[in-house]
Amino acid sequence: MPTEGLRNISDTALWVAQYRVMESERPDAIFRDPLAKKLVGDRGEELVRRMKVRGFAWPMIVRTAVMDEIILRAIDDDGVDCVLNLATGLDTRPYRLPLPRTLRWIEADLPAMLAYKAEKLAGESRACRFESVAADLTDASARKALFARAAEGSRAVLAVTEGLLAYLTEEQVASLSEDLHAPAAMRLWLIDIASPRLKKMLDRKVGKHVEAANAPFRFAPASGTKFFEPHGWREREFRSTFEEGLRLHRTMRLAWLFQLLGRLGPPARREEMRRMGGIVLLERT
Question: What is the pLDDT of residues 60-101, one digit of tens each?
């Protein structure tokens, strides 16, 4: 059994997928990912154990569940006919969500990640039209070609960057935002975002692990979602990870105390706490 911790940024996909394994094994699971265990094998559990991050499961599980909800709603209510999942990692939504057969789903990631995933999921059926594209999203020309490919023939594209932006610099996120905005068919963008306060907490808890993998947390803009406005995107919907955790009954220890302290503060403080971390649906301006 492997004994080392995170080796590179691709290993973070194993880490996060292990949380989906954990949730799927619960009798009261809020979602089920029957393929997660096949993808992570024993290494996912080993990573969570060695990094001592079992307590970090709840925000990842909440993020997955809320993004599932928003994706399905965007398809039904906004006419999305193409989902572009960037840095897809070990995501299995095309296999496990009740998607329309006519939906076009494009996943993009580094070649090694996609090859590993294709090998592990060989023979599994998907719910929709599916394309897998090997691309380095830090390569501007490759990125623009990918976005043009997704937009071609599509009425409305929903881009998804689950867990990606945190590893990019503000300059990289700005460039990605503008390139994503360029094709007119790019209508919606689903992201997760952390505040500087939350980033400091994460750095204390898991910073040494992501640093060792040469994948430190970088993006946590003080301006929050307003960061995206000069680059063609504005907030349509913000879902507080903490509030959604309460709704879904997936919270941290002593969540009641955190909630009480939040209620005691002034409105500005309460809003700051609510927006420490969230799932956000952006729309093009």
Answer: 999 999 999 999 999 999 999 999 999 999 999 999 999 999
Confidence band of 44 (pLDDT split at 50, 70, 90): confident
Sign of CA dihedral 23, 85, 239, 103: negative
Bridge partners of 109, per DSSP, are 134
* Pairing between β-strand 157-161 and β-strand 233-240 as defined by DSSP bridges: unpaired
C-alpha triplet 18, 92, 227: angle, nearest 5°: 85
Q: Which domains does the chain have, with CATH numbers?
A: 54-284 (3.40.50.150)
Alpha-helix runs per DSSP H in 152-251:
170-181, 196-212, 241-248
- The SS3 assignment for 158 reads strand
Rg (CA), the chain: 18
Q: Please list, residue by residue across 180-214, b when 16 or more beta carbons sit within 10 angstroms of its beta carbon and e when fewer do.
A: bbebebbbbbbbbbbbeebbeebeeebeebbeebe
Give me the pLDDT at residue 57, please: 94
